[in-house]
């Protein structure tokens, strides 16, 4: 079967180059940038100082720096944030209009494996690529794999990255040392104080509205995030996901992804 390939117009790129590009980003992001090899793709985030998620991003190693893959509607905000942190660092930070492509259900040359989970496929930046699917098809695949879309599911500065499963999807390097928001993130992981996580839910019919309550009996068990017919992401309390769950009177069930530890 031929792989499916879609252009992701919801994503945009920022090119960070210069002598200080890697140490500059390494001290800011949740991911190790110093060891990022050219052509290698990693997943990470820029957090607020209190440790909440501001920007989810992919990092592609370049010979002279790093290419950042971010939500298109958040690119300008990230450019401004990086400019604020730049100070005297010898870096150039600029928008890059190279298109972003995603591939799944097969392999093709030029695609780097998605670092979150192999089931998602791969990503590519630029080149002559013939698409065979739409971005909506890609979003359906992502939801079927059970991976959140932080740019859609986590309003900026409202969610901790561990709640968005960054620790389970290779989005945080806990061995790299300091990054913005590191203290809160490391403390949550070290103490196991993780009450809420984004997990996929299944149901019949159209998706409930964003923010609709998930109930376990009369107890609030979480809230619905982005979704489509039959499936959605939800931010749920882990101690209330067993039992009969409902949203707006409709039964729903937690669908445990393959990448989620038992």
Describe this structure in words.
It is built from five helices and 15 strands. It is α+β, with helices and mostly antiparallel strands. It starts with a strand and ends in an 8-residue tail after the last strand. 42% of the residues are buried. A hairpin with a 2-residue loop joins strand 11 and strand 12 (219-228). The chain has two domains: 4-153, 2-Layer Sandwich (Gyrase A, domain 2), CATH 3.30.1360; 195-254, Elongation Factor Tu (Ef-tu), domain 3 (Beta Barrel). Helix content is 16%, strand content 33%. The mean pLDDT is 95. The radius of gyration is 19 Å and the shape is globular. It has a six-stranded antiparallel β-barrel. It has a five-stranded antiparallel beta sheet with strand order 3-4-5-2-6, with helices on one face.
Beta-strand percentage range:
25-35%
In whole angstroms, the N-to-C terminal distance is 32 Å
Percent range for helical residues?
10-25%
**Main beta sheet strand tally, sense and closure:** 6 strands, antiparallel, barrel
What structural class do the secondary elements suggest?
Answer: alpha+beta
Shape: globular
The total domain count is 2
CATH architecture of the largest domain: 2-Layer Sandwich
> What oligomerization state is this entry in?
single chain
**How many extended strands?**
15
For this structure, what is the CATH homologous superfamily of the largest domain?
Probable tRNA modification gtpase trme, domain 1
N-to-C SSE series?
Answer: EEHEEEHEEEEHHHEEEEEE
Helix tally equals 5
The main sheet orders its strands as 10-13-12-11-14-15
Radius of gyration: 19 Å
What would the average pLDDT be, to the nearest integer? 95
CATH class of the largest domain: Alpha Beta
